[in-house]
């Protein structure tokens, strides 16, 4: 294997492992259970909202050398900083990083060791994360060369066994309606698109250290590595979703998501399954925790222009995440859903606009589209909680979970006809064009 191919595989494996964390393991089997025979429909929505958007985010961020602030800058400095910080906090110490430890405990440690102390475990988990994160340039090699191959082997054992010896019959009737939009919602919950925005910093640092320094080389390596990760994720998601479908006659839509994958694994592999699941969960969550912690540390260090040291930020993230992780997976997921529903549309809007930024000379396109995405998503979240807003369901694509797309397109078109008076936009367009 040549150097370039080896580097592509290592970086691609690292991306796969950083993406494949707590949510990626527990959401696909649940989709299989509630979808039954129609599991491919919800799986398609999940892959679109997870793998598809994450790959776009990696490509967009690579164009800006992994600098989130530059990528979002044309939406305005205030929104840029607010949205960028919100993304990093969500995929950092507030939601995603604590969830990795909580999931590892509930699915990997508790089934084997019973009443193991959660506080002690969280301290151990984040101590390991800290040790493997403190040197950012080594993160990708550690994850891609050693941890991911072990994770893939463990997942392959589980999925192949489930395909060869299904635990039950697939339910011909789905448990819910709107399977595609449910898949999209679960794809949001993985937080991979948000993670991809900041993972790019870690990936580009590794690519540069491997000798790929020109923009063309970085984009090419990021694209190829992203495709390696995307193929791996699709295969694993499909396998896990199918495993869930095979027990769709045994469980309903109210099944606990962490308990479901524990039950499937034990049913397929017996008592040995607990050990294999513990290995899968520990590796999946640890690699994601490492990637997210490193990315968040680099983001806030860059945002403060080095006033906050990377090492100090990483230590703070690990300490805070250790505390939050003791809330448990269910509580973290419950609190994260409305936050992610508000952040995602605006983030996806800016990612897509950033990909075509050289074609857009007016900054008001970015501003109008992003603010509209935030507005619609906030109304949608309010409607889902207590105050009903019937008009929000009249928007096109509402049943698919994309009611914000058409309003965003209209807002962007209107913004294009509002003079921006921004010399930076014209200079940016000339530079990239």
UniProtKB/TrEMBL annotation:
It comes from the Bacteria. It is found in: Cell membrane. It is a multi-pass membrane protein. One of its GO terms (molecular function) is L-valine transmembrane transporter activity. One of its GO terms (biological process) is L-leucine transport. NCBIfam families: livcs (TIGR00796). Component of the transport system for branched-chain amino acids. PANTHER family: BRANCHED-CHAIN AMINO ACID PERMEASE BRNQ, BRANCHED-CHAIN AMINO ACID TRANSPORT SYSTEM 2 CARRIER PROTEIN. This is Branched-chain amino acid transport system carrier protein. It comes from Asaccharospora irregularis DSM 2635.
């Amino acid at each position: 294997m040549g150097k370039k191919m080896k580097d592509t595989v290592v970086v691609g494996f690292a991306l796969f492992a950083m993406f494949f964390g707590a949510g990626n393991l527990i959401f696909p089997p649940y989709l299989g259970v509630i979808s039954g025979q129609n599991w491919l429909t919800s799986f398609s929505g999940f892959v679109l909202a997870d793998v598809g958007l994450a790959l776009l985010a990696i490509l967009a961020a690579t164009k800006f050398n992994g600098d989130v602030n530059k990528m979002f800058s044309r939406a305005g400095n205030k929104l840029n900083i607010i949205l960028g910080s919100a993304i990093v906090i969500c995929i950092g110490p507030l939601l995603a990083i604590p969830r990795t430890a909580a999931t590892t405990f509930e699915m990997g440690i508790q089934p084997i060791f019973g009443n193991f102390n959660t506080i002690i475990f969280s301290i151990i988990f984040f101590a390991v994360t800290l040790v493997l994160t403190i040197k950012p340039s080594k993160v990708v090699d550690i994850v891609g060369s050693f941890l991911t191959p072990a994770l893939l082997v463990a997942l392959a054992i589980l999925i192949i066994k489930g395909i060869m010896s299904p635990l039950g019959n697939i339910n011909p009737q789905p448990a819910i309606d709107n399977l595609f939009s449910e898949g999209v919602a679960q794809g949001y919950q993985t937080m991979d698109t948000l993670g991809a925005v900041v993972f790019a910093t870690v990936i580009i640092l590794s690519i540069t250290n491997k000798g790929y320094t020109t923009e063309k080389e970085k984009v090419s390596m990021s694209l190829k590595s992203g495709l390696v990760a995307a193929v791996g994720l699709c295969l694993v998601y499909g396998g896990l979703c199918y495993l869930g479908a095979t027990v769709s006659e045994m469980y309903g839509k109210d099944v606990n998501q962490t308990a479901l994958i524990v039950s499937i694994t034990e049913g397929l592999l017996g008592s040995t399954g607990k050990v294999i699941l513990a290995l899968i969960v520990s590796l999946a969550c640890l690699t994601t925790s490492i990637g997210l912690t490193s990315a968040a540390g680099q983001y806030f260090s860059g945002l403060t222009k080095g006033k906050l040291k990377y090492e100090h930020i990483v230590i703070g993230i690990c300490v805070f995440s250790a505390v939050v992780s003791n809330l448990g997976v269910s509580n973290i997921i419950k609190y994260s859903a409305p936050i992610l529903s508000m952040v995602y549309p605006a983030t996806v809007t800016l990612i897509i606009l950033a990909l075509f930024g050289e074609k857009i000379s007016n900054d008001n396109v970015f501003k109008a589209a992003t603010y509209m995405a935030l507005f619609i998503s906030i109304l949608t979240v309010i409607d889902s909680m207590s105050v009903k807003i019937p008009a929000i369901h009249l928007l096109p694509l509402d049943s698919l979970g994309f009611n914000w797309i058409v309003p965003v397109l209209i807002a962007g078109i209107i913004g294009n006809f509002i003079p921006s008076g921004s010399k930076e936009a014209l200079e940016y367009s000339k530079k990239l064009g």
